[in-house]
């Protein structure tokens, strides 16, 4: 079973993403900040990360950089409430960028595309 | 002892003469009485006395008994001619019983000599000198005895004493009289400093003192000051001798000036020096140079005609004395006149300076170009305290377009308006300043001359004629006859409606910035060289004032532009702040919305109750609406696309840098710029690119807390496909931690500001299909390199 790490400082978002993704058949772990996300990656191997941009403490960009330093091949989907930077994700070395929405179709489609 | 009758006669005659000689009578009266005594004593019926004249070359009848008295003072014989002339020359007595048969006798009618048959003549001798001849005449045939001749000779000797003492006395009297007249003339010479009056005075006094008939005075080039060449010659000619002066004057002057010596011609008919021109005239001439400091300054010439006495050496002496005084007096008068003239010049100059001062004050009172031009032209057309031309036009050059354009014209439209305005100026004695403050001298905007002025427009090409040349050659032109002047184009002549005008260039700091054209359409007063000189001075001052006003106006424009940029920047900052706020709101609202909407969707899949399903749909549609609002708002604020137009990147840099100049200076930061003109214009949104440049400059400035150098370079890329701009600083450079976050909108090392500067710049450059990179220099400091594509011409 493929493992996904959901990183978001909003507990409800974590919960929503977990339920949606588990329903799709993935094993989901959540982290509420960048530090715990990196720690989770130390403990287990994940196939995909969804990463919030703006978080308290270490923010998404910094977390992304550290994740990619650890393992550049780990796919990371940026999941952000900001839609204005969605064209810039390439420069931040993420693999995809989705704008958070009540309609989780974009999330599901992107995950499916990456993990097959 | 008894006396012989002859001796008795002689004694009585001699004692009689002695008595007469001590009488108070004048010489003529004494001689008259003496010959009467002699005539009676000898017992004859006629007697006469001839005396040598002043020249000693003629004898002249001085007294007569039995002859016509009209001949007295007129009948004259040259020495050696006639009986009288012969006796005076030979100095021996002569007795003629029948003079009419004697070859020496010369008959002169109307003297009455024919009434006498015989005569005895004796020379009047004083030692070896002969004063004259005394005659005794007899109506009867008379063979004079030797004793009668002796009596006459003795009597003649006695007379010589009378004559000698009288002549001595007369000589003394003459000398005293001359001294008196020299004194009088000297007094007269110091009484006036008017040159004409002075000449007239000298002429009258010398003429009367020397009993001459007239006088001429010619002054040569009058004494002049340093570097001043005065051509003026003054001449005084007595009308009485005008004709004579025409014949002799020039010859006398030429000789006198050449010889620097007085010249005396006693009788022009006898004198070799003037014989070639003097056949009709018998004139006596005295010509004396006026000498001042060894220089001949003039010639004074006196004429005595046939009616008067010929001049003698004494007269020459006298005139020479007078002339030496006169020369000084003339010199003084000429100097005085020159001083006066210079004082007059100084007054004019002072007035001109006062005008220039007024105009300068008026001009310095404004930096408004339109108002300044009006002041200049009003000054040019104002009488009294202004320059006083009828009309004036001012033209300015546009250096960029190379066109000379008439800016403004001032002047009356009609004679009526002209005289009304000028009268008012004269009446009110207002200064230029007051005129400017209280209103216009002439109706301005709609005046004909203003329209004429504004119609004048030409390329600055010498072929365009006098106006273009005034500017190009930086010199004035005084056009006297426009119709025949090849430099005056016909259309200019037709527009101006005047045949004479003048132009002067407006030159400020060596640059010709325009020209002023003036004319005197109404008064037709010719424009003089002096007018032009003054106008040139005026134009120089006006040009400086205009230049200042133009600079000021440019600075105002620049300040306005800077203000606009500031406002735009403030707007951008506001937008950025609004964007930040919206981003916050987005984050704060979007997350709960995602939760609400997400879980509601999950709920919808599990609920089967139709009512509940309906409510869930309402919730979902409202969540969707809210998400749409957020999306639309963000799009509005953040995603306004660039509005492209062809713009020069260099111009944008030049606009931005002045905004920061003050702050950079305060922070001790130098600016080094090297903007290549080769990059040309690009397709860009000027506002956005300006924002990008501002952000980079501000970023560089804030990196240099302790001063440094800001470098701005532009150049084309090696393949010419991009325009490159580098903005560098000499700050600490970009830290490794910052490098990855530099364009991250929420990363900043700055204490203040939104932290969005570089991300926004990044976004703008991306939107322009360009790119931006940065690096740390080996020498310290950071360089941002921005590339924008050069439009590819199809």
- Strands of chain A, total number: 5
β-strand percent of chain A reads 15-25%
Q: Tell me, what is the CATH class of the largest domain in chain B?
A: Alpha Beta
Class by SSE composition of chain A: alpha/beta
Fourth-tier CATH superfamily name of chain A: Response regulator
- For the secondary structure, the number of strands of chain B is 24
Biggest pleated-sheet summary of chain B: 6 strands, antiparallel
Low-pLDDT regions of chain B: 223-232, 750-754
Strand content of chain B: 15-25%
Shape of chain A: globular
State the order of secondary-structure elements of chain A, H for helix, E for strand. Answer: EHEHEHEEH
| Unreliable runs of chain A | none
How would the global form of chain B be characterised? Answer: rod-shaped
How large is the radius of gyration of chain B? 58 Å
The main pleated sheet of chain A reads as:
5 strands, parallel
Give the strand line-up of the largest sheet of chain B: 3-2-1-6-5-4
* Tally of separate domains of chain B: 5
The overall number of domains of chain A is 1
Rg of chain A (C-alpha, Å): 13 Å
What oligomeric state do these chains adopt? heterodimer
User: Which architecture of the largest domain in chain B per CATH?
Assistant: 2-Layer Sandwich
């Amino acid at each position: 079973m493929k493992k996904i790490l959901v990183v978001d400082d909003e507990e409800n978002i974590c919960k929503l993403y977990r339920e949606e993704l588990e329903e799709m058949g993935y094993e989901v772990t959540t982290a509420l900040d960048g530090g715990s996300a990196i720690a989770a990656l130390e403990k287990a191997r994940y196939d995909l990360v969804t990463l919030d941009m703006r978080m308290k403490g270490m923010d998404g960009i910094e977390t992304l950089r550290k994740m990619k330093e650890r393992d550049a091949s780990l796919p990371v989907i940026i999941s952000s409430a900001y839609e204005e930077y969605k064209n810039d994700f390439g420069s931040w070395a993420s693999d995809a960028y989705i704008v958070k929405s009540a309609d989780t179709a974009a999330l599901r489609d992107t995950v499916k595309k990456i993990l097959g | 002892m008894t006396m012989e009758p002859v001796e008795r006669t002689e004694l009585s005659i001699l004692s009689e003469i002695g008595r007469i000689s001590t009488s108070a009578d004048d010489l003529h009266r004494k001689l008259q009485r003496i010959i009467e005594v002699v005539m009676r004593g000898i017992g004859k019926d006629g007697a006469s006395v001839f005396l040598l004249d002043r020249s000693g070359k003629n004898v002249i009848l001085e007294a007569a008994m039995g002859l016509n008295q009209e001949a007295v003072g007129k009948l004259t014989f040259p020495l050696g001619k006639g009986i009288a002339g012969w006796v005076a020359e030979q100095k021996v007595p002569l007795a003629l019983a029948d003079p009419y048969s004697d070859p020496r006798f010369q008959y002169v009618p109307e003297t009455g000599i024919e009434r006498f048959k015989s005569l005895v003549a004796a020379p009047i001798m004083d030692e070896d000198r002969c004063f004259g001849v005394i005659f005794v005449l007899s109506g009867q045939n008379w063979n004079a005895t030797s004793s009668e001749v002796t009596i006459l000779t003795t009597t003649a000797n006695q007379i010589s004493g009378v004559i000698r003492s009288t002549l001595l006395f007369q000589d003394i009297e003459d000398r005293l009289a001359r001294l008196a007249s020299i004194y009088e003339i000297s007094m007269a010479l110091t009484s006036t400093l008017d040159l004409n009056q002075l000449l007239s005075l000298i002429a009258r006094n010398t003429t009367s003192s020397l009993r001459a008939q007239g006088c001429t005075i010619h002054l040569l080039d009058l004494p002049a000051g340093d570097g001043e060449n005065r051509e003026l010659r003054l001449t005084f000619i007595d009308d009485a001798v005008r004709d004579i002066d025409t014949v002799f004057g020039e010859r006398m002057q030429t000789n006198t000036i050449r010889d620097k010596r007085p010249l005396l011609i006693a009788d022009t008919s006898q004198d070799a020096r003037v014989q070639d021109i003097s056949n009709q005239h018998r004139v006596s001439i005295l010509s004396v140079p006026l000498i001042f400091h060894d220089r001949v300054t003039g010639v004074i010439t006196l004429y005595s005609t046939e009616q008067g006495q010929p001049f003698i050496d004494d007269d020459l002496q006298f005139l020479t004395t007078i002339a030496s005084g006169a020369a000084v007096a003339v010199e003084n008068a000429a100097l005085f006149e020159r001083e006066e003239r210079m004082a007059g010049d100084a007054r004019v100059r002072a007035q001109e300076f006062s005008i220039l001062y007024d105009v300068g004050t008026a001009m310095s009172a404004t930096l408004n170009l339109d108002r300044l031009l009006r002041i200049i032209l009003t000054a040019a057309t104002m009488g009294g305290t202004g320059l006083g031309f009828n009309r004036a036009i001012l033209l300015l050059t546009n250096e960029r377009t190379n066109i000379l354009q008439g800016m403004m014209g001032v002047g009356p439209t009609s004679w009526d308006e002209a005289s009304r305005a000028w009268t008012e100026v004269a009446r009110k004695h207002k200064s230029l300043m007051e005129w400017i403050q209280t209103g216009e001298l002439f109706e301005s905007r709609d005046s004909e001359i203003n329209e004429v002025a504004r119609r004048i427009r030409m390329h600055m090409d010498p072929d365009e004629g006098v106006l273009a040349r005034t500017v190009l050659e930086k010199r004035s032109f005084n056009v006297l006859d426009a119709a025949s002047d090849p430099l005056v184009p016909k259309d200019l002549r037709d527009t101006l409606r005047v045949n004479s005008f003048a132009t002067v260039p407006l030159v400020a700091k060596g640059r010709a910035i325009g020209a002023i054209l003036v004319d005197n359409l109404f008064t037709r007063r010719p424009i003089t060289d002096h007018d032009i000189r003054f106008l040139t001075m005026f134009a120089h001052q006006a040009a400086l004032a205009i230049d200042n006003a133009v600079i000021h106006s440019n600075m105002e424009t620049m300040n306005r532009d800077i203000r606009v940029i500031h406002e735009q920047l403030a707007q951008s900052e506001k937008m950025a702040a609004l964007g930040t706020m919206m981003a916050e709101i987005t984050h704060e609202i979007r997350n709960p919305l995602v939760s609400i909407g997400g879980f509601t969707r999950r709920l919808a899949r599990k609920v089967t109750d139709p009512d509940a399903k309906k409510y869930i749909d309402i919730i979902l549609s409202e969540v969707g609406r809210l998400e749409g609002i957020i999306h639309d708002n963000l799009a509005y604020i953040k995603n306004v696309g660039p509005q492209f137009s062809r713009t020069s990147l260099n111009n944008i840099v030049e606009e931005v840098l002045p905004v920061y100049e003050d702050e950079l200076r305060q922070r001790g930061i130098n600016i080094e710029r090297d903007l290549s003109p080769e990059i040309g214009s690009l397709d860009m949104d000027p506002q956005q690119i300006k924002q990008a440049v501002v952000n980079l400059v501000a970023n560089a400035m804030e990196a240099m807390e302790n001063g440094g150098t800001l470098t701005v370079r532009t150049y084309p890329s090696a393949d010419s496909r991009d325009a490159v701009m580098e903005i560098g600083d000499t700050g600490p450079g970009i830290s490794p931690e910052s490098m990855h976050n530099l364009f991250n909108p929420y990363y900043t090392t700055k204490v203040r500001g939104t932290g969005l500067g570089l991300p926004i710049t990044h976004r703008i450059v991306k939107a322009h299909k360009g790119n931006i990179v940065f690096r740390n220099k080996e020498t310290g400091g950071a360089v941002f390199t921005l590339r924008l594509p050069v439009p590819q011409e199809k």
